[in-house]
């Protein structure tokens, strides 16, 4: 393979995707090295271990390699379900050392001149440097590591050219972080936040009231942000502490919500008003498994049909609406079981909801969104 024509070498390289194989090809000769390096180092994968973070620092420190990095992905794990471990693990010393090395790595993204995207996946376990075994960390240290890395990445964003940030398995704080609210010149055009569900947080904390605001990690209002994804993939998420009234993004074009619970009464701090506030620019809206909160079984529901009709009238720039049929629900907060389906909603309510949604979709399909 060392003496193949450069065109054939290039074709071979383009057909290889595994990092191990690319690095092997890179070691063959100079031609392979020059062709493989941009491909092999376009994405840095950092495992949740000291050694992996140190390897990342070495790449960041090598100018000839750092120039090729477009994406940094932290602790990607395939087909693993998030679950907080019992609060019975003492891993303070090991976690402290890991946090220190990871902090240096993520603060160092400023040295990556072509960085575009950072993905942070938070899992409550790490690889022990001494034994090589996976160690579960208690929830306190898990949240502390999350805070440390979020702080580091926001520090790096002050001078970085990255445009996309994805955060997965986040426990939202009950109070905002200063390092988030102070980043007034955020470079992001897209942010995706996947949160730990109410049920998972409640099972760990023994409280239904620890859930933080959906806006806790959103950048301050700015003209750069074009796309937002807020997800709770493992179950419903609702927070009475959500305060969205201060957020306005005049370039926002796309909003995706999954398993997010809407407040019973619309307010400037709520999700419904957040959508309306971006009516002049929002072109795509996707709702997956969202629900409306009902304070108690004696209170009348605020129907989804009311929301569909209001959005149909006011979202004048919308061109695409994605909502699964039958995916609009109503939930109650049970002291013992958390958010549960409201079982006393009549069939007529659901039929009215479905009819209003279909009218909304038909208007969009026909390009007949009403202008108020």
Short description, anyone?
The chain is an alpha/beta fold and 372 residues long. The chain has helices at residues 6-14, 19-26, 30-40, 50-61, 63-66, 92-107, 139-157, 178-181, 198-205, 271-277, 304-314, 347-366, and strands spanning 43-46, 71-74, 117-121, 125-127, 134-136, 164-170, 190-195, 227-231, 254-258, 261-262, 284-288, 291-293, 320-323, 329-334, 338-341.
Structural summary, described in words:
By secondary structure, this protein is of the alpha/beta class. The chain contains 12 helices and 15 strands. The protein has helices at 6-14, 19-26, 30-40, 50-61, 63-66, 92-107, 139-157, 178-181, 198-205, 271-277, 304-314, 347-366; strands at 43-46, 71-74, 117-121, 125-127, 134-136, 164-170, 190-195, 227-231, 254-258, 261-262, 284-288, 291-293, 320-323, 329-334, 338-341. The strands form 3 sheets. Strands 1-2-3-6-7-8-9-11-13 form a 9-stranded parallel beta sheet. The protein has a 4-stranded mixed beta sheet with strand order 10-12-14-15, with helices on one face. A two-stranded antiparallel ribbon has the order 4-5. α1 runs parallel beside α3 (30-40) and α6 runs parallel beside α7. The mean pLDDT is 85.
Percent range for β-strand residues: 15-25%
Q: Give the averaged pLDDT, no decimals.
A: 85
- Strand tally, please? 15
* Terminal-residue CA separation: 67 Å
Largest sheet: 9 strands, parallel
Helical run tally? 12
Overall shape: it is globular
What value does the Rg take, in angstroms?
Answer: 23 Å
């Amino acid at each position: 393979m060392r003496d193949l024509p450069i065109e054939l070498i290039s074709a071979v390289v383009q057909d290889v995707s595994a990092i191990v194989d690319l690095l092997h090809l890179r070691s063959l000769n100079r031609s392979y090295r020059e062709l493989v390096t941009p491909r092999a180092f376009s994405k840095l994968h950092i495992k949740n271990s000291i050694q992996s973070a140190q390897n990342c620092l070495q790449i960041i420190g090598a100018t000839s390699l750092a120039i090729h990095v477009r994406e940094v992905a932290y602790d990607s794990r395939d087909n693993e379900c998030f679950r907080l471990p019992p609060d019975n693990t003492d891993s303070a010393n090991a976690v402290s050392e890991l946090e220190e090395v990871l902090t240096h790595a993520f603060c160092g993204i400023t040295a990556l001149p072509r960085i575009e995207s950072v993905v942070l996946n938070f899992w409550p376990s790490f690889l022990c440097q001494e034994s090589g075994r996976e160690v579960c960390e208690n929830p306190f240290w898990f949240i502390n590591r999350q805070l440390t890395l979020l702080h580091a990445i926001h520090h790096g964003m002050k001078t970085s050219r990255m445009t996309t940030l994805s955060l997965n398995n986040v426990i939202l704080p009950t109070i905002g972080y200063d390092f988030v609210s102070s980043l007034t010149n955020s470079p992001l055009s897209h942010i995706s936040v996947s949160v730990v569900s109410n049920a998972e947080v409640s099972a760990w904390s023994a409280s239904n009231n620890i859930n933080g605001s959906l806006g806790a990690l959103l950048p301050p209002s700015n003209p750069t942000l074009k796309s937002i994804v807020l997800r709770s993939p493992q179950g419903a998420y609702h927070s009475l502490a959500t305060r969205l009234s201060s957020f306005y993004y005049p370039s926002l074009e796309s909003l995706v919500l999954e398993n997010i619970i809407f407040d019973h009464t619309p307010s400037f701090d709520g999700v419904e008003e957040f959508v309306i506030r971006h009516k002049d620019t929002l072109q795509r809206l996707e709702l997956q498994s969202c629900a409306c909160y009902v304070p108690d079984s004696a209170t009348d529901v605020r129907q989804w049909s009311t929301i569909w009709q209001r959005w149909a009238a006011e979202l004048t720039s919308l061109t695409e609406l994605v909502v699964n049929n039958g995916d609009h629900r109503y939930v109650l907060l049970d002291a013992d079981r958390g958010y549960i389906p409201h079982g006393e909603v009549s069939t007529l309510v659901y039929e009215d909801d479905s009819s209003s949604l279909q009218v909304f979709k038909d208007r969009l399909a026909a390009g007949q969104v009403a202008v108020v």
